[in-house]
Amino acid sequence: MAAAGKVSTFRLPPLPTIREIIKLFRLQAQKQLSQNFLLDLRLTDKIVRKAGNLRNAYVYEVGPGPGGITRSILNADVAELLVVEKDTRFIPGLQMLSDAAPGKLRIVHGDVLTFKIEKAFPGSLKRQWEDDPPNIHIIGNLPFSVSTPLIIKWLENVSCRDGPFAYGRTQMTLTFQKEVAERLTASTGSKQRSRLSVMAQYLCSVDHVFTIPGQAFIPKPEVDVGVVHFTPLTEPVIKQPFKLVEKLVQNTFQFRRKYCYRGLGMLFPEAQRLESTGKLLQLADVDPTLRPCQLSLSHFKSLCDVYRKMCDGDPQLFAYNFREELKQSKSKNQKKEAHQESNGL
Ligand code: SAM
Hints:
By secondary structure, this protein is α/β, with parallel strands linked by helices.
């Protein structure tokens, strides 16, 4: 009988180690798929601790591979763990874990980029956006080539309150190349400040919780790995559509060493560039000689609000793409030159 006042907790029974699982099921990492495994259960436990209190939580693990993080999540006494893994080779090893944790682990062979998590957990877990986050957590150590496009997709989902955020302000704990983790969390004025910093921080509170040295992985990647925790904000700093913010921020950072008016100017057709950029900066009250990395979230908020008004006043403006204009004017010049040559001019 459990001692009075003690709550019984779930622990996995003794199992072969992850190293043994890798041998048993011949799960050699495929370098071309950037598979780097974490075998040290102290590290996987640490990632899971940083996700928060998972007791009775519903957890969505992306890319479980041989199951190191998966074991730590199960040992955190969760209500349910849903894993989505693309590589079929890992399914039998995960099945073994599922047998050891009856009713707790659901395995999906699928692609995290297309999997519809918004239908996977009970609707009763949904919370109002302004409430505390729901008892749902996303955790994952994915290949770097997947984690960056995925976080952009999920940030758009945060902005639209759909996908994993149909349940409310679902928290995420994900790994990135250390340099990307630093960009995600970089503050105004820092060297690493970039498009990703603004896109993540206008929607979420973002923490680089710790760094895992490359040598902790097998095989060892070229770089160290940053673990980043995201909690969506109750109110985004910028209340404009994601695509509009993305366009403005992307344009701003494309000339990252120049004054900000250079990149912002590319939002406007050449014929009106000077005038419209001046108007944008003046109405947003932003100094044109600040560098992109010196712009704060509140600068970006003002810029996006003014740009939105300019787009509302000129329905063609949002679709404008300076690269298209450049291409068209180049091909016009080429045709003109060819015409002049054929006329012997
Ligand atoms: N989480 C394990 C660990 O920490 O040891 C494995 C990490 S390994 C870097 C990435 C895992 O993500 C691999 O198992 C790989 O097959 C899986 N994966 C890659 N792309 C995926 C995708 N689009 N959807 C689901 N799983 C994916």
